[in-house]
Amino acid sequence: MTVLRFSTNSVPERQRRDAAEYVYGAHVRGQLDFPKEDPIRVDMSARELGGIHLAAITTSPVRAYHAPDENGMVYIGIATRGTGSLDESGGAEVQAGYVNVVRRDRPSTALVAQESTILSLAIPHVQIVPRLAHFDTLIGRSAAPSTASRLLEAYVSTLLTDERTISTADAATFASHVIDLACLALGTGGDSAEIATKGGLRAARLKAIKADIAANIGNPDLSIDWLARRQGIGESYIRALFYDTGTSFTDHLLNTRLDYVRRLLSDARFDNRNIASLALEVGFGDISWFNQVFRRRFGMTPSDMRRQRHLQ
């Protein structure tokens, strides 16, 4: 389950309209009408996870015509950049950061008035509607940005930028988290709010923290206090998130650094770098301790690992 990438830049100009419509139609059934005077530009990333479909679409101005849905899907959009409108006659104005439920009980249109980037989610009706409060009032309307909507946006964006193949089991877990966050962003009913908060919200927060750690692994300021301030949460909450997964912040940070050094040692491009400099680069200040924990984790010294690769 990898990410599908499409760009009109890779298609001859005369074929761009048809190609964009074909790829768009694979995600959400509809037709596209681009203004004749503007060049057509569409970049799209899409991924299927556990029965839900995710897409990120950057497009030049366009009007999309949607047929009634026949597959029992609920379509949710988040404009991360740009503006537009849903169901133009009396529908919702799309603003950046707002979560929109697209009307699919009858033919509808969506207008993208300027070049925009939109996250689009297609979720089976049976998996989300029973958990939403007053679903009928959400159709064709917008939910204002919230903590849940921002986490939903970040979580979906991460899934669409991560090139790695996702296993079937992990895909089901990620899909569940997406649905939890969508429910929280739109308004849950009954016990669903508590279920979603314990599931998707915490999972998305932990994923954001782990991504922050990976992106700043060589930063000397990287610590639980530094992360708490960046994420706007308490240190005890971060500790609790890792504890729920059976580990600790300290162990995760250590293992992330060790895995990073191992990847560098496995890459011939870094053969001219001494091992101590690689360790220092990812935040190990004590080389003796680094050698000790590396051997405990991988069953060999860093030098042995590099030597072993050369003998293969």
Automatic annotation (TrEMBL):
One of its GO terms (molecular function) is DNA-binding transcription factor activity. Residues 207-308 form the HTH araC/xylS-type domain. The keyword Transmembrane helix does not apply. SUPFAM superfamilies: Homeodomain-like. Keywords: DNA-binding, Transcription, Transcription regulation. This is AraC family transcriptional regulator.
